[in-house]
């Protein structure tokens, strides 16, 4: 058992991460995974978590935190009739399969590989945010199977490797095929459920018995972080929301795009060290 001073430092650092993640998640209108993973990575480094498992732990813990928030969001959107349940039913196996495949890949991947994957996808998403145009379309309706099924698997894999709920990726997919953004956002909450629950299970199995994990971890899930971050993010997210209402949609897109580029650059620098 580590000294009580180290545990207190760990808890305080995570609480600070929750404040940052909650404000930024509220500001940019996303689930927080793209924010939590890099923040967790820095906090785990601060408290001396082994570099070999640091990124795995950040991704897995992020997915665990997304479970309750995505469930709450999904049922709220569903009451309003905004969710595309037909699409979710067609992805009932595709997206979880992708999330489980991601956990399997993570189990055999180095910390460097996971950071590189996160950085590359972050740059692509940042490009979409910075240069997005409403006129960008791949079709007037969602593709049929097997292409739609494959898209679900890909969204599950990429989201599972990044530790995100899939909102940014699914919003992009649905909007490129002519679906209204409010429906895409609502459906993304359901996609988050399909990703986070199997992802949570997968990262527990993938990290079972791994060395170098901090106290109160089960596989690549740290329960101290989960217990601290969820209430803190829910508490401070309205602050970010208030800030968001002072900016235009375009300003928020540019801000989030720049944030992702900074994160990608930070991981790129860490890979070069």
UniProtKB/TrEMBL annotation:
UniProt cross-references to InterPro entries, sorted A to Z: TM_pro_TauE-like
Protein localization: Cell membrane; Membrane
A GO-annotated cellular component: plasma membrane
Membrane-crossing residue ranges in chain numbering: 7-24, 30-49, 56-75, 87-106, 113-131, 151-173, 185-208, 220-242, 254-272
Membrane topology category: Multi-pass membrane protein
Keywords of this entry: Cell membrane, Membrane, Transmembrane, Transmembrane helix
UniProt record similarity statement: Belongs to the 4-toluene sulfonate uptake permease (TSUP) (TC 2.A.102) family.
The protein, known as: Probable membrane transporter protein
Organism: Georhizobium profundi
Taxonomic classification: Bacteria, Pseudomonadati, Pseudomonadota, Alphaproteobacteria, Hyphomicrobiales
């Amino acid at each position: 058992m580590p000294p009580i001073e180290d545990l207190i430092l760990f808890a305080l650092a995570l609480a600070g991460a929750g404040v940052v993640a909650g404000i930024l998640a509220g500001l940019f209108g996303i689930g927080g995974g793209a924010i939590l993973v890099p923040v967790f990575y820095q906090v785990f480094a601060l408290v001396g978590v082994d570099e070999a498992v640091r990124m795995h732990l950040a991704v897995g813990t992020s997915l665990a935190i997304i479970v309750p928030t995505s469930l709450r969001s999904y049922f709220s959107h569903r009451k309003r009739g905004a969710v595309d349940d037909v699409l979710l039913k067609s992805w009932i196996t595709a997206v979880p399969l992708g999330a489980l495949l991601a956990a399997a890949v993570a189990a055999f991947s180095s910390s460097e590989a996971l950071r590189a994957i996160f950085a590359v996808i972050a740059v692509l998403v940042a490009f979409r945010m910075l240069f997005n145009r409403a006129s960008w379309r791949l079709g007037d309706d969602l593709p049929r199977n097997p292409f739609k099924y494959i898209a679900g698997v890909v969204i599950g894999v990429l989201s599972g490797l990044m530790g995100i709920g899939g909102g940014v990726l699914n919003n992009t997919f649905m909007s490129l095929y002519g679906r209204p953004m409010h429906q895409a956002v609502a459906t993304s909450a359901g996609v988050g459920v399909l990703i986070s629950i199997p992802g949570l299970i997968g990262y527990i199995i993938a990290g079972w018995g791994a060395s170098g994990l901090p106290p109160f971890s089960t596989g690549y899930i740290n329960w101290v972080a989960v217990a601290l971050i969820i209430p803190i993010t829910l508490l401070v997210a309205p602050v970010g929301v208030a800030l968001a209402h002072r900016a235009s949609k375009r300003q928020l897109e540019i801000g989030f795009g720049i944030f992702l580029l900074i994160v990608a650059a930070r991981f790129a620098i860490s890979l070069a060290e």
